[in-house]
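Justification of resources, computational component.

The compute hours requested in this renewal are based largely on the per-chain cost of generating structure records like the one below. Each record pairs the submitted sequence with a full structure-token output. That output is archived, and it is also reused by downstream analysis tasks.
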Amino acid sequence: LRIGRLAAALAALGVRPGSTVAMMDYDSHRYLEAFFAVPMMGAVLQTVNVRLAPEQILYTLNHARADLLLVNGEFLPLLAAIRDQLETVRGFILIADDPAALPAGFAGEYEALLAAARDDYDFPDFDENTRATTFYTTGTTGLPKGVYFSHRQLVLHPLATAAALGTAPDSGRLDRGDVYMPITPMFHVHAWGIPYVATLLGIKQVYPGRYEPDTLLRLIAAEQVSFSHCVPTILQMLLTSPAGQSADLAGWKVVIGGAALPKGLAAAALERGIDVFAGYGMSETCPILTLARAGSAGDAAAQVEARVKTGQPIPLVELRTVDEDLRDLPRDGRTAGEVLVRAPWLTQGYLDNPEAGAALWAGGYLHTGDIGSLDAGGTLQITDRLKDVIKTGGEWISSLDLESLISQHPSVSEAAVVGVPDEKWGERPRALVVLKPGHAPDPEALRAWVGQAAAEGRISRYAVPEAIDFVAELPRTSVGKLDKKLMRQRLA
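The structure output for this chain reads:
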């Protein structure tokens, strides 16, 4: 009923097939309603990354030619800074639990508009390839690029994801008995598409608003949340927060994506009884491509190894690893090359940017920009981003492998590794480390830790960092990924 009422309210404000309705909100049931109502009208839902700088938000709204903007009251100051420069937005709807007054120029408040609307909106029929959603990538170079998906793609991706998660024999299973709470912003790739899966399966859903540790932990306990997904930073924050250190998180299933799952974090989560495992994808892939499968066999070390793997492709995903000439590489679990992918839900390009779209799909496969290897069973292991691999001493060093190794040291909470210029070697790895509380900086101990791994052949001898910086926190992008471009700039 609420989805029908929202559609009727939007139609009364002039939204038609082909219109673009933008949303600036925290994770909420209202966002979920927009996930359905706006595309079902034949309009396009633009999920706005509210963590971007105001000038970038302005760019994305103008570039997408947004017609109507739904905005949470907490973002009114941000809107005020850019409102006079909006080129196509002709109406605003306020989202507020306790609206004191309607700002000037707003058509109404969300709940009041729904209360006054009819609930029998007649949703039209249209071609399944009609564009349904758009959002903007947060790349580290250039302006944000608009990624878009069709109705067909937003049906196929949840079906394949539901098949993958629902048929897991042991760890990582999602079924109708679960309670789902995303801890990935709904503005970012539809919260990885899992809200569509949860709705498809009829699963109870909990939407937390702001990501505050105490609130998240309270909801997990009170609502018996059993399935979530987040970036490594969020899980680290929950485990180390004062409330999180004593919280009972046993049985909580958590998919980690957006960045590699470090072995140290995986081990810490498993010790707390969390069913943690990695997933892989990107904005352009809707996003899920692979999921790690751990099973129940093996000791603790074997479980960690299985859960941090990039994983096996979900149904309908085809993966390749290729050299610079796009020739397939051996599936031996060792030989690394760029990861290419095909699946029926990948974005077909970038909005009004045909050149970037052509580069994305060069050779008929989507180029992920990631380096990885495939084994004989089809399991993928990402070793680095093309732009982040460290080229030193004639070898390629995986920053992800080195970060995961450092994260397993007893004193380390988080670690990041970047390459810095070196006259002799071309580049050398440099580590940035966040220590656990109560531990003092000891660079030689960490160098010895990596050196021991090199002596045992677990990592290249060139990977031992000559410099280690101890920092209070690691720079991150607006979606919680490590911002290695900024790290390199600061070190330079």
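The chain has a mean pLDDT of 94. Residues 239 and 268 are 8 Å apart (CA to CA).
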